[in-house]
Amino acid sequence: MLILTPVSVFAIIFSMSSRFGAKVISWGRAVPERVVTNDDLAQFLDTDDEWISKRTGISERRIADPEKGEGAIDLGAAAAQSALDQVEKYSGGSLAAEDIDLIICATATGDYLFPSTACMIQDKLGASNAVAFDMSAACTGFIFALNTAYNYIHSGQFKNIMVIGVDLMSKYIDWADRSTAVIFGDGAGAAIVSACDEAEDAFHPFYIKSRGDSDCSLYVKSVANQYPVAEADIKAKPEMVYMDGKAVYEFAVKAVPEALEQAIEASGYKPEEIDYFVPHQANIRIIQGAARRFKIPMEKFICNIDRYGNTSAASIPIAFDEAYELGQIKREPGQKLKLGLVGFGAGLTWGATVIEF
Ligand code: UT7
Q1: What would the mean pLDDT of 263-269 be, rounded to a whole number?
Q2: What separation in angstroms does the CA of 182 have from each of 163, 185, 280, 287, 347?
Q3: Above pLDDT 70, what percent of the chain?
Q4: Are residues 56 and 308 in contact, defined by beta-carbon separation less than 8 angstroms?
Q5: Residue 201 C-alpha to ligand 1 middle, in angstroms?
Q6: Which domain CATH number covers 288?
Q7: What is the SS3 assignment for 200?
Q8: Residues spanned by the domain of 260
Q9: Can you tell me the distance from the alpha carbon of 303 to that of 291, in angstroms, rounded to the nearest whole number?
Q10: SS3 assignment, position 160
């Protein structure tokens, strides 16, 4: 029998009335210093600038040097610090590292198997009051982490959440494989999601999907996680990115419009009402295909793949933060931009949302 005490009645009423709104209050990014151009790669790979630019839209990418303080933890912490430093620019006011109560780090390329990259970033950032954990969803990681942050805030459990996407794919690149070596780059991006009045809630419903890909069209096999490790596996260095580019491309050209269509419909807007689209940067042709599908001019799609390549979980926040800084994304005082965010990648995973910012 259910016995209702005054305390449990209060708890029920409180949980029914205490729904919180959530909004992104800041963005940040950190990329390695070293620029590797297509011509640089052509010096040791059977490729050329024309092929890479035409087929992918990539001209150069950043490659990290962990020996120079550019590991996943370093870059993730730098992106998070940049998001803290830019609270005033983006939303007015300020936030200290101690005000962060949760850090979610989306990464597939952390420096350690454990502890989590998020815990190490917590320490570096001085976010002493935060809970911290990682999320593994490859290139869709930022969308999944943002969705998780939104739900934690909506439930009232946390108030200021640092969402980080960081990947150093270069650690797993086979530099003799031209089909993957030209695609990926390293970097980190971050967004801070904070609680607000429910009336100010800036998120529309997320559309997220997974389809376990037993055909393994995109993977890195973990030798460290296999026991016993075969001598042959160690010699063959199998911890490298394998990608069936065509299969992933075919998946992506369907997944991106599908996710955007569902997210836009759930937001109640029409595609032409979205001010900017910030898509995962995997191939310019995938982004162009989505623009054609929605009959939206490419100027509304934020693209920086030419300079960074595919930075996996980091690509969306890097693209937003840079475009805002460069004035490609314009926001008048008091204006609320409608942003369509979309990601996809290994898993397979894909997802999108519309946020107001
Ligand atoms: O974020 C994770 C999601 N990942 C993706 O979204 C990647 C999706 N896939 C793609 O973007 C494209 O499939 C690639 C850019 C990876 C490849 O482009 P493609 O137009 O699908 O090329 P392909 O794999 O069909 O290869 C065409 C030709 C092949 O030569 P042959 O067999 O026709 O003689 C390849 O060997 O291009 C060759 N090729 C290259 N040539 C010069 C493959 N890579 C290179 C290269 N330089 N780097």
Answers
A1: 98
A2: 28, 8, 17, 18, 21
A3: 91
A4: no
A5: 42
A6: 3.40.47.10
A7: helix
A8: 207-356
A9: 12
A10: strand
Min mean pLDDT across 11-15, 109-113, 184-188, 195-199 is at: 11-15
What is the total count of domains within the chain?
2
8 A C-beta contact, residue 239 and residue 223 = yes
Residue 157 and residue 152: Cα distance in Å, rounded?
6
Residues 196 and 228 in one domain: no
Give yes or no: residues 189 and 256 share one domain: no
The alpha carbon of 204 and the centre of ligand 1 are apart by a number of angstroms equal to: 35
283: CB partners within 8 A, 6+ apart: 55, 56, 57, 183, 249, 252, 305, 310
Regarding pTM above 0.90, the answer is yes
Tabulate helix, strand, coil % of the chain (nearest 5).
45, 20, 35
282 lines ligand 1 (CB under 6 A): yes
Residue 1: inside a domain? no
Environment class of 163 (CB within 10 Å of its CB; exposed 0-12, middle 13-18, buried 19+) = buried
**Is the CB of residue 164 less than 8 Å from the CB of residue 190?**
yes
Residue 278 binned pLDDT confidence (cut-offs 50, 70, 90) = very high
- Residue-wise pLDDT for 67-119, tens only, equals 899 999 999 999 999 999 999 999 999 999 999 999 999 999 999 999 999 99
Q: Are residues 185 and 219 in the same domain?
A: no
Separation of alpha carbons 73 and 64, rounded Å: 12
DSSP letter (8 states) at residue 337: -
- Which residues are 219's β-sheet partners? 242
Q: What is the pLDDT of residue 67?
A: 86
Count of CB atoms within 10 A of residue 83's CB?
28
Give residue 13's pLDDT band: very low, low, confident or very high (50, 70, 90). very low
Residue 285 CB less than 6 A away from ligand 1 = no
Tell me the three state secondary structure of residue 207. strand
- Atom 17 in ligand 1: which residue has the minimum CA distance? 245
